[in-house]
Write a structure and sequence with these properties.
The complex is a heterodimer.
Chain A: E1 3-10, H1 19-30, H2 35-55, E2 58-65, E3 69-77, H3 84-87, H4 97-101, H5 109-116, E4 119-125, E5 129-137
Antiparallel strand pairs in A: 1-2, 2-3, 3-5, 4-5
Helix pairs in contact in A: 1-2, 2-5
Chain B: H1 3-9, E1 13-14, E2 27-30, H2 34-37, E3 45-49, H3 54-62, E4 65-70, H4 78-86, E5 90-93, H5 98-107, E6 111-112
Parallel strand pairs in B: 2-3, 2-6, 3-4, 4-5
Antiparallel strand pairs in B: 1-5
Classes of the chains: A alpha+beta, B alpha/beta.
């Protein structure tokens, strides 16, 4: 049976970005999942959390931790992504100066989520928001 | 390198408590860019950085980093220390620059990630 975990994220609230990935990491550790796999999953979740804090107004993270895989859905209300193909390209970013000063906004987030996950789906509507769904097998 | 040797060589102060037993680190990475740190495939490394904020500690937690060294006199905030302590991460503060810290640790046998 899958364990469901839910978290909310506020746009601009970087101090709480990482709470979802931190909790998910603890749950996966308890399930004795291999450390390298856990790292891939939590890095992807953290990148997605940072994206919501950096670009959106608010969002939520839903993780379904199953026996063989984990499915994570990160949805936000926000500006959406105008050009997903471009946003996936390493080095392309629309992040603010403040976000860059915090060590992010290098245009590597979505590409890193793709690299660390087995399945990735990005649904976005400009002016409404974005939902990033990904799956990782153990 | 052993953690106690690292502390001595870079004239560091531990902002968090240290584990009871001296432990060994094999590799290190220097960066102010957390996006870059999140792409590292190695675990249990030491990170030298000029960035001192909560995002650094979160990044270290997700990237399986064991020790972060705040260079050039940067200080860890109480929030950083609390979060690091929860996750068993060691924070060191050194007055040396990133360049000098990296040079000293490299020449004493701490290998680069790349």
């Amino acid at each position: 049976m899958a364990i469901e975990l839910n978290f909310t994220i506020e746009g601009g609230d970087f101090s709480n970005a990482g709470k979802a990935s931190s909790k998910i990491k603890k749950v996966l550790k308890q399930l004795n999942i291999e450390a390298k796999i856990i790292k891939k999953i939590v890095v992807a979740v953290y990148e997605a959390e940072v994206n919501v804090a950096a670009h959106a107004y608010s969002g939520n993270v839903k993780a379904l931790v199953g026996e063989n895989d984990v499915v994570v859905m990160v949805s936000d209300s926000g500006p959406g992504i105008e050009n997903v193909e471009l946003a996936m390209k390493e080095g392309y970013s629309t992040a603010s100066k403040e976000v860059r000063e915090m060590g992010f906004g290098a245009g590597m987030g979505l590409a890193n989520i793709k690299r660390n996950t087995d399945e990735l789906k990005i649904e976005t509507t400009v002016g409404e928001g974005t939902t990033v769904t990904f799956r990782c097998f153990y | 390198m052993k953690i106690n040797e690292i502390i001595e060589k870079i004239n560091a102060r531990a902002a968090t408590s240290l584990p009871d037993e001296d432990f060994e680190l094999e590799k290190a990475f220097s960066s102010d860019l957390m996006s870059d740190v999140l792409t590292l495939e190695e675990e249990n490394i030491l990170l030298i950085t000029g960035l001192a904020n909560v995002q650094l500690i979160r990044t270290a937690e997700m990237a399986d980093i064991d020790v972060v060294v705040l260079a050039r006199g940067k200080k860890a905030s109480p929030e950083m220390v609390e979060l690091a302590s929860e996750n068993g991460l060691v924070i060191l503060e050194t007055p040396f620059s990133i360049y000098r810290t990296s040079g000293i640790l490299y020449s004493n046998g701490l290998k680069p990630v790349y």
